[in-house]
Protein backbone atom coordinates (compact mmCIF):
# COMPACT_ATOMS: atom_id res chain seq x y z
CA UNK A 1 0.00 0.00 0.00
CA UNK A 2 1.39 3.43 -0.95
CA UNK A 3 2.30 6.05 1.68
CA UNK A 4 -0.87 7.84 2.88
CA UNK A 5 -1.44 11.35 1.54
CA UNK A 6 -4.42 13.51 0.69
CA UNK A 7 -5.35 13.83 -3.00
CA UNK A 8 -7.61 16.27 -4.88
CA UNK A 9 -9.87 18.76 -3.13
CA UNK A 10 -13.31 17.20 -3.68
CA UNK A 11 -15.65 19.77 -2.10
CA UNK A 12 -16.04 22.58 0.36
CA UNK A 13 -18.91 21.97 2.77
CA UNK A 14 -21.12 24.95 3.64
CA UNK A 15 -23.70 24.53 6.42
CA UNK A 16 -26.88 26.53 5.85
CA UNK A 17 -30.17 27.04 7.71
CA UNK A 18 -32.22 26.77 4.47
CA UNK A 19 -30.93 24.66 1.58
CA UNK A 20 -33.36 25.94 -1.05
CA UNK A 21 -32.51 29.55 -0.20
CA UNK A 22 -28.78 28.78 -0.44
CA UNK A 23 -29.27 27.10 -3.84
CA UNK A 24 -31.11 30.19 -5.03
CA UNK A 25 -28.16 32.35 -3.93
CA UNK A 26 -25.74 30.31 -6.02
CA UNK A 27 -28.17 30.40 -8.95
CA UNK A 28 -29.02 34.11 -8.94
CA UNK A 29 -25.97 35.75 -7.32
CA UNK A 30 -23.26 33.53 -8.86
CA UNK A 31 -24.98 32.24 -11.98
CA UNK A 32 -24.49 28.60 -11.04
CA UNK A 33 -26.36 26.41 -13.51
CA UNK A 34 -25.44 22.92 -12.36
CA UNK A 35 -27.02 22.43 -8.92
CA UNK A 36 -28.26 18.99 -7.92
CA UNK A 37 -31.71 18.33 -6.44
CA UNK A 38 -31.50 18.28 -2.64
CA UNK A 39 -31.70 14.86 -1.00
CA UNK A 40 -31.91 13.70 2.62
CA UNK A 41 -29.20 11.57 4.22
CA UNK A 42 -30.93 10.59 7.50
CA UNK A 43 -28.01 8.44 8.61
CA UNK A 44 -25.79 11.53 8.39
CA UNK A 45 -28.45 13.88 9.79
CA UNK A 46 -28.30 16.28 6.85
CA UNK A 47 -30.12 17.34 3.71
CA UNK A 48 -27.54 17.81 0.93
CA UNK A 49 -27.14 19.26 -2.54
CA UNK A 50 -24.12 20.08 -4.69
CA UNK A 51 -23.19 23.15 -6.70
CA UNK A 52 -21.13 21.44 -9.42
CA UNK A 53 -18.16 23.49 -10.64
CA UNK A 54 -15.58 22.78 -13.33
CA UNK A 55 -12.97 21.56 -10.84
CA UNK A 56 -14.80 21.03 -7.54
CA UNK A 57 -18.10 21.33 -5.72
CA UNK A 58 -19.75 23.38 -3.03
CA UNK A 59 -21.62 20.94 -0.81
CA UNK A 60 -24.60 22.69 0.79
CA UNK A 61 -25.83 20.93 3.94
CA UNK A 62 -28.82 21.65 6.21
CA UNK A 63 -29.43 19.90 9.54
CA UNK A 64 -32.28 17.35 9.31
CA UNK A 65 -33.02 17.44 13.05
CA UNK A 66 -31.67 18.34 16.46
CA UNK A 67 -29.52 15.20 16.45
CA UNK A 68 -27.72 16.35 13.33
CA UNK A 69 -23.93 16.73 13.79
CA UNK A 70 -24.35 20.24 12.37
CA UNK A 71 -27.28 21.28 14.56
CA UNK A 72 -24.97 23.00 17.08
CA UNK A 73 -23.02 24.63 14.26
CA UNK A 74 -26.18 26.31 12.90
CA UNK A 75 -27.22 27.28 16.45
CA UNK A 76 -23.88 29.09 16.79
CA UNK A 77 -23.91 30.38 13.19
CA UNK A 78 -27.60 31.01 12.42
CA UNK A 79 -26.85 32.40 8.93
CA UNK A 80 -24.67 29.38 8.15
CA UNK A 81 -20.97 29.21 7.42
CA UNK A 82 -18.06 27.39 5.91
CA UNK A 83 -18.20 23.96 7.54
CA UNK A 84 -15.58 21.55 6.21
CA UNK A 85 -13.09 20.84 3.48
CA UNK A 86 -13.05 17.43 1.80
CA UNK A 87 -10.04 15.75 0.24
CA UNK A 88 -10.02 12.50 -1.71
CA UNK A 89 -7.90 9.60 -0.46
CA UNK A 90 -7.24 6.13 -1.91
CA UNK A 91 -8.24 4.18 1.19
CA UNK A 92 -10.29 5.51 4.13
CA UNK A 93 -9.27 2.59 6.36
CA UNK A 94 -5.62 3.42 5.73
CA UNK A 95 -6.46 7.07 6.51
CA UNK A 96 -8.04 6.09 9.85
CA UNK A 97 -4.93 4.12 10.76
CA UNK A 98 -2.57 6.90 9.72
CA UNK A 99 -4.57 9.61 11.49
CA UNK A 100 -4.38 7.56 14.68
CA UNK A 101 -0.65 6.99 14.26
CA UNK A 102 -0.13 10.72 13.61
CA UNK A 103 -2.07 11.69 16.75
CA UNK A 104 -5.22 13.09 15.12
CA UNK A 105 -8.79 12.48 16.33
CA UNK A 106 -11.02 10.67 13.82
CA UNK A 107 -14.71 11.37 14.47
CA UNK A 108 -16.84 8.20 14.44
CA UNK A 109 -16.44 5.25 12.08
CA UNK A 110 -16.04 5.22 8.29
CA UNK A 111 -19.46 5.53 6.70
CA UNK A 112 -20.94 6.12 3.27
CA UNK A 113 -21.07 9.80 2.33
CA UNK A 114 -23.04 11.78 -0.22
CA UNK A 115 -20.85 10.55 -3.10
CA UNK A 116 -21.56 6.92 -2.22
CA UNK A 117 -18.05 6.18 -0.99
CA UNK A 118 -16.58 5.81 2.50
CA UNK A 119 -15.82 9.02 4.42
CA UNK A 120 -14.32 10.01 7.74
CA UNK A 121 -13.87 13.32 9.53
CA UNK A 122 -10.82 14.59 11.44
CA UNK A 123 -11.48 16.89 14.41
CA UNK A 124 -11.06 20.63 13.73
CA UNK A 125 -8.57 20.88 16.61
CA UNK A 126 -6.05 18.88 14.53
CA UNK A 127 -6.10 21.25 11.54
CA UNK A 128 -6.03 24.87 12.67
CA UNK A 129 -9.75 24.88 13.45
CA UNK A 130 -10.83 23.39 10.11
CA UNK A 131 -12.99 20.25 10.03
CA UNK A 132 -11.44 17.94 7.44
CA UNK A 133 -13.37 15.23 5.60
CA UNK A 134 -11.50 12.43 3.87
CA UNK A 135 -13.43 10.48 1.24
CA UNK A 136 -12.54 7.57 -0.98
CA UNK A 137 -12.35 8.65 -4.60
CA UNK A 138 -15.56 7.75 -6.48
CA UNK A 139 -15.14 5.27 -9.36
CA UNK A 140 -13.94 6.89 -12.55
CA UNK A 141 -13.25 10.21 -10.82
CA UNK A 142 -9.58 11.08 -11.40
C1 LIG B 1 -23.61 13.54 4.01
C2 LIG B 1 -22.17 13.48 4.21
C3 LIG B 1 -21.52 14.70 3.62
C4 LIG B 1 -20.44 14.25 2.64
O1 LIG B 1 -19.59 15.05 2.26
O2 LIG B 1 -20.54 13.06 2.21
C5 LIG B 1 -20.96 15.60 4.69
O3 LIG B 1 -19.91 16.19 4.63
S1 LIG B 1 -21.95 15.72 6.10
C6 LIG B 1 -21.13 16.93 7.14
C7 LIG B 1 -21.78 16.89 8.48
N1 LIG B 1 -21.20 15.82 9.28
C8 LIG B 1 -20.17 16.09 10.12
O4 LIG B 1 -19.70 17.21 10.23
C9 LIG B 1 -19.66 14.91 10.90
C10 LIG B 1 -18.40 15.27 11.68
N2 LIG B 1 -18.68 16.38 12.57
C11 LIG B 1 -18.83 16.17 13.94
O5 LIG B 1 -18.70 15.08 14.46
C12 LIG B 1 -19.19 17.42 14.73
O6 LIG B 1 -19.73 18.39 13.86
C13 LIG B 1 -17.99 18.04 15.51
C14 LIG B 1 -17.47 17.04 16.52
C15 LIG B 1 -16.87 18.47 14.57
C16 LIG B 1 -18.47 19.28 16.22
O7 LIG B 1 -19.64 18.93 16.89
P1 LIG B 1 -20.38 20.01 17.83
O8 LIG B 1 -20.40 21.35 17.16
O9 LIG B 1 -21.70 19.45 18.25
O10 LIG B 1 -19.42 19.98 19.06
P2 LIG B 1 -18.85 21.16 19.87
O11 LIG B 1 -19.83 22.30 19.88
O12 LIG B 1 -18.37 20.61 21.16
O13 LIG B 1 -17.58 21.62 18.97
C17 LIG B 1 -16.29 21.23 19.38
C18 LIG B 1 -15.37 22.35 18.93
O14 LIG B 1 -15.28 22.28 17.49
C19 LIG B 1 -15.72 23.52 16.94
N3 LIG B 1 -16.41 23.17 15.70
C20 LIG B 1 -17.61 22.57 15.57
N4 LIG B 1 -17.90 22.39 14.24
C21 LIG B 1 -16.85 22.92 13.58
C22 LIG B 1 -16.54 23.07 12.19
N5 LIG B 1 -17.38 22.61 11.25
N6 LIG B 1 -15.38 23.66 11.84
C23 LIG B 1 -14.52 24.13 12.80
N7 LIG B 1 -14.72 24.03 14.14
C24 LIG B 1 -15.90 23.42 14.50
C25 LIG B 1 -16.62 24.15 17.97
O15 LIG B 1 -16.66 25.53 17.78
C26 LIG B 1 -15.91 23.74 19.23
O16 LIG B 1 -14.78 24.56 19.37
P3 LIG B 1 -14.34 25.05 20.83
O17 LIG B 1 -13.16 25.95 20.59
O18 LIG B 1 -14.06 23.78 21.59
O19 LIG B 1 -15.57 25.78 21.36
CO1 LIG C 1 -18.78 16.76 2.91
TrEMBL record:
- GO MF assignments: metal ion binding; methylmalonyl-CoA epimerase activity
In this chain the VOC domain maps to: 8-137
Q: What Pfam family is a match, any one? A: Glyoxalase_4
Under PROSITE patterns, the record lists: VOC
Q: Which GO terms describe its biological process?
A: L-methylmalonyl-CoA metabolic process
- Tell me where on the tree of life, at the top rank, the source sits: Bacteria
Q: Has the keyword Cytoplasm been applied to this entry? A: no
Q: Which InterPro entries does the annotation name? A: Glyas_Bleomycin-R_OHBP_Dase (IPR029068), MeMalonyl-CoA_epimerase (IPR017515), MMCE/EMCE_epimerase (IPR051785), VOC_core (IPR037523)
Q: Which UniProt keywords apply?
A: Metal-binding
> Which protein family is named in the record?
Belongs to the methylmalonyl-CoA epimerase family.
Q: What is this protein called?
A: Methylmalonyl-CoA epimerase
Identify the species of origin. Hyphomonas beringensis
